[in-house]
Design goal:
The protein contains 39 helices and 14 strands. The protein is an alpha+beta fold and 983 residues long.
Length: 983
């Protein structure tokens, strides 16, 4: 088949896979673990299949190391891969150089690791292109020309560019579906071919065993012991493949995979690789039996041409070529991403670009076109004398130089940048001298310099050279890391990467605290389009609005921006740009804000904690619940007076929601709370008692207490503040003092009335004698007027004495028939003495002769309090009317005024002690409460309506008493007296 026809057919095959992938994607099944596990089968694609056949031919069952090594890595996925998955997903680190640059906080580390990865992948791509060339040459029975050899690298470049043409980040769901479909078809082909050859060539497994015994000389490699070959080196090499090989790393950690995929891959991937390895010996033995005239790496296509129809042979060729091209596309995408982030961006200034997205697209497009071309040039220069498997071992040996640093990401926090770079450089130098130069350029520096007596043999002893380079790499890395200082930022990153932590405790301080300013600063570095999209994405992720101003929430936004940009530009460039745009220099110390972030992230990880961590988190939640449910207002502040804790009682007291104030400074609180808490936090007093505060125009009193929160590990301090509302206690104390003063005044009034009563009595007697001693009309009129005035004074004194005695609620209740009209008249006379009060009309329309069984003194107090309240609610020239009615043995008294009335919200509380709507100093709030108690003592009832029925304003107080059935009842009858016990 012609090379051009093959290219067209392979392109059609890729389009078919794309269609299948789109169908899978439409059904939302791409994230299924089964699809992801099948996609991992690209590890055993074209070069993997042919390498396995070549290794089986040379090393017998040693070819199983190719599959057992990576299977072992997946068996340890919970310990090895999941911690790296957690860090990569949390901080958006989608390549191994990204992880290393983040862990060691060094752009140099990322660039060195990228150079190593690019060189290793170029060698793997070169091997693929070489195999593709050999495969097309064998299928077409002619040597491909230069344009034909360049055809497939160009196809890789075009498809790679098409996949990311409209994307900013390297996530290609289409490719995942295509790889999974390709693996399924290839596995089906291999298993079918294995079963067919077993039956067609050997008849049965017994026939295969007989043939092996008869042809032992032809397949002597199978009889070799595993110790005869570099078995341990192979296992180590492929054990690290999922982490060090960029295409596999991309599949595991860069695409939208789920954590469940890794756990299911721990058994799914080994099963897949086992199935892929089963047909290899049968294909090898069948090829040997038929003497297939090709090199071992091409046994599959050679065998199908010998035993299958031309159509099946052509389909096998197309499937193998498509599998190889898919691996090349995946490898091209993975290394182009890290190359932009760690080789191009450090030498460019993305902040100078008007549209960083467009610049990134052009840069990645250029790399995706250039990398396949470089790999093809390398494949053209590779000598044909060395087997493909040996070239692959050399490429993986170079990639293995980053393995010590990769394991240190999660298991060795003491490792630092200097140790990693030194160990990596030494290991790479050893690889270059022992493997790289002899294989690529046939240069043996050790032999030519006389350091060794015989030339190196990298094809046979490569595993020894690999172990030597890794040993020196690890030794230098560990030794120098222990003797050199580790930077604080590396320590923080190591905690973030370790398996028992998930918070990067790096102290930062924002230069601005407004979303609009953050957007403006980002536009200066990312451009208007990119800044807007990245900021909106981060705000959506954190669910914050454009009016957010809390410093700690904005610091979370800053952290999320850096995480998002890490996926776009790499961690080193993202960190530099964010620091340049948003950060200001601060002392390198931890603050209580880290505890706030820790609390926030612990809530996200609560369901994942187990063992001791889960128990400690449960204890934390218990203590946190105590603080939040504490029936006293409490809050904690950091050194910058930012709120770290705000319990429910504090939220109810200040009417400021917890979510609105957490992380915000005290200055954002409304008055009077902002001023109150700031002044108290700044004062040197640990407590303040009965602090007066006006809330909504009303005076309230609070007790404040505070204690210092000291961090022994840093200089950061804070405060815990308790606020207790003592308004009711303060009012009670004031009212009790006022009541004591009233009692004293009552006693004084009684004494004064008694002392005035004696001379008034004398004056009345003298006036009476004057009338008897003189008969002149003028004298008699004067004496009569004197007698009338003294009688008036006596009545006023009697009323004052009765009212002062009625305030003693603990005195016995003496019941007698009381005329309600007389009580009302006495009350009217008493309140009329206040000449400074409003001049209102008091109209007593209570019918005469209405008597109730009660205490006249206390009933007079009821009328006095109600009339006083009514007069206070009226304006001058308003009217207060007292009316009565009788129904079914009850008398009803209505006291109606035409004043302002009582608001509906206050009607429910007017009888509560100390509740008043009057201004401070104008009312005690006890009058109506006493009235309510007196009326209950008299088996009566009281109702208040405002406004009265049929009126537009005013208030009507309705009193209800049972009528006295026996008017002769006297209070001297002890059987009719009742004792009132005070509470």
């Amino acid at each position: 088949m012609n090379t051009w026809i093959l290219a067209v057919c392979v392109t059609a095959y890729l389009l078919l896979l794309a269609w299948v992938a789109n169908r899978i994607q439409g059904k939302e099944r791409l994230s299924h673990p089964f699809v992801a596990i099948l996609a991992l089968g690209t590890y055993g694609s074209l070069f993997g299949l042919h390498t396995s056949l070549e290794m089986a031919y040379d090393s017998g069952f040693g070819f199983l190391a190719y599959y057992l090594g990576i299977s072992g890595a997946f068996l340890l996925a919970p310990m090895l891969m999941y911690p790296i998955y957690r860090v990569s997903q949390r901080y958006q680190l989608f390549s191994l150089p990204d992880l290393l640059a983040f862990r060691f906080k060094s752009q140099t580390v990322g660039s060195i690791a990228t150079l190593c990865s690019v060189l290793g992948v170029l060698m793997l791509l070169a091997l693929n292109f070489r195999l593709i060339t050999d495969l097309t040459a064998y299928s077409s029975n002619e040597v491909p020309t230069l344009p034909e050899r360049l055809l497939f690298p160009a196809l890789v470049a075009l498809v790679s560019i098409f996949l990311i043409a409209r994307q900013y980040r390297y996530r290609t769901p289409w490719l995942i579906g295509a790889l999974a479909s390709d693996t399924f078809l290839r596995l089906l082909l291999l298993l079918s071919l294995g079963v067919y050859l077993l039956i067609d060539q050997f008849g049965s497994p017994v026939g295969l065993d007989d043939w092996i015994e008869e042809n032992g000389q032809r397949i002597s490699a199978i009889e070799r012991h595993l110790e005869d070959d570099p078995w341990r080196g192979l296992l180590l090499l492929f054990f690290g493949a999922p982490l060090i090989c960029p295409p596999i790393f991309h599949l595991l950690f860069s695409e939208k995979s789920r954590s469940q995929t890794l756990f299911k891959a721990s058994w799914g991937a080994p099963l897949l690789f086992l199935l892929m390895s089963l047909p290899i010996p049968i294909i090898l033995w069948s090829s040997i039996r038929l003497s297939t005239p090709v090199s071992p790496e091409l046994y599959v296509i050679g065998m199908t041409q010998q035993v299958a129809t031309p159509l099946l042979s052509a389909l096998t060729t197309i499937l193998l070529l498509g599998s190889g091209l898919l691996f090349c596309i995946l490898a091209n995408i993975s290394v182009s991403s890290m190359s932009v982030n760690h080789l191009m961006l450090p030498w460019s200034r993305p902040e100078e670009k008007q549209n960083i997205y467009e610049w990134l697209r052009r840069a990645r497009t250029g790399l995706m076109a250039g990398i396949p071309l470089l790999a093809w040039l390398l494949s053209e220069s590779l000598p044909n004398s060395a087997p493909v498997s040996d070239w692959m071992m050399a490429a993986f040996s170079l990639l293995m130089q980053v393995l010590p640093g990769t394991l240190a990401l999660i298991y060795w926090p003491q490792g630092n940048r200097f140790g990693f770079l030194s160990g990596f450089m030494l290991g790479s130098l050893v690889w270059l001298i022992l493997l790289g130069l002899p294989l690529l350029l046939s240069i043996d520096l050790l032999f030519e310099s006389g350091l060794v007596n015989q030339p190196l043999n990298p094809w046979q002893d490569w595993h020894l050279y690999l172990l030597a380079s890794l040993f020196l790499n690890t030794l230098v890395f560990a030794g120098l890391s222990l003797v050199t200082p580790t930077r604080p930022e590396e320590v923080a990153a190591s905690h973030a990467c370790s398996i028992d932590s998930f918070l990067e405790n790096e102290r930062t301080e924002l230069a601005t605290h407004r979303i609009a300013d953050i957007r403006k600063r980002l536009e200066e570095t990312l451009g208007k389009v990119a800044a807007g999209k990245e900021l909106e994405k981060a705000m959506s992720r954190l669910e914050i609005g454009p009016d957010e101003h809390r410093p700690i929430v904005l610091k979370r936004l800053r952290q999320q921006l850096e995480i998002n940009l890490s996926a776009l530009l790499g961690p080193a460039t993202a960190r530099r740009l964010i620091r340049q745009a948003l950060d200001m220099p601060v002392a390198d110390q931890r603050d209580t804000e880290d505890r706030y972030l820790l609390e926030t992230q612990l809530e996200d990880y609560h369901s994942r904690l187990t063992g001791l961590a889960a128990e400690l988190d449960s204890l934390r939640r218990y203590h946190r619940q105590i603080l939040h449910q504490l029936p006293m207002a409490a809050c904690t502040l950091n050194a910058q007076n930012e709120v770290m804790m705000w319990n429910q009682s504090m939220a109810q007291l200040t009417r400021v929601d917890i979510d609105e104030i957490l992380g915000a400074p005290l200055t954002v609180l409304p008055d009077p709370w902002s001023r109150l808490l700031q002044e108290f936090a700044a004062s040197n007093q640990p407590r303040e008692s009965k602090k007066p505060v006006y809330v909504s125009g009303k005076a309230r009193w609070y007790n404040l207490n505070k204690a210092r929160l000291e961090d022994q590990e840093s200089a950061a301090n804070g405060w815990i503040i308790l606020v207790e509302d003592c308004t009711d206690t303060q009012r009670l104390e004031r009212e009790l003092a006022h009541s004591e003063r009233l009692a004293s005044i009552g006693q004084l009034a009684a004494g004064v009335a008694h002392e005035i009563g004696n001379p008034i009595t004398g004056i009345a007697c003298l006036a009476q004698n004057l009338k008897l001693a003189d008969d002149q009309n003028e004298v008699l009129d004067t004496a009569g007027q004197i007698k009338e005035q003294t009688d008036r004074v006596s009545r006023i004194l009697d009323t004052l004495m009765n009212f002062s005695r009625s305030g003693n609620m603990s005195s016995p209740l003496f019941l007698e028939a009381v005329d309600l009209r007389t009580c009302a008249d006495q009350a009217i006379q008493l309140i009329a003495l206040d000449r400074e009060a409003r001049q209102v009309s008091l109209i007593n329309e209570i019918s005469e002769g209405l008597r109730v069984l009660g205490d006249p003194q206390r009933l007079s107090q009821v009328f006095v309090n109600l009339l006083n309240n009514a007069r206070d609610a009226c304006s001058d020239d308003d009217r207060i009317t007292l009316s009565s009615s009788v129904d079914k043995g009850y008398v009803y008294i209505d006291i109606t005024d035409t004043g302002d009335g009582i608001p509906g919200a206050d009607l429910q509380r007017i009888f509560e002690p100390f509740y008043t709507t009057k201004r401070p100093g104008k009312g005690t709030g006890l009058g109506l409460s006493l009235v309510y108690g007196i009326i209950e003592e008299h088996n009566g009832n009281i109702r208040v309506s405002s406004p009265p029925r049929g009126a537009s304003k005013g208030t009507c107080v309705s009193l209800e008493f049972p009528l006295a059935t026996d008017p002769s009842v006297s209070g001297n009858d002890e059987n009719q007296s009742t004792e009132h016990q005070a509470d």
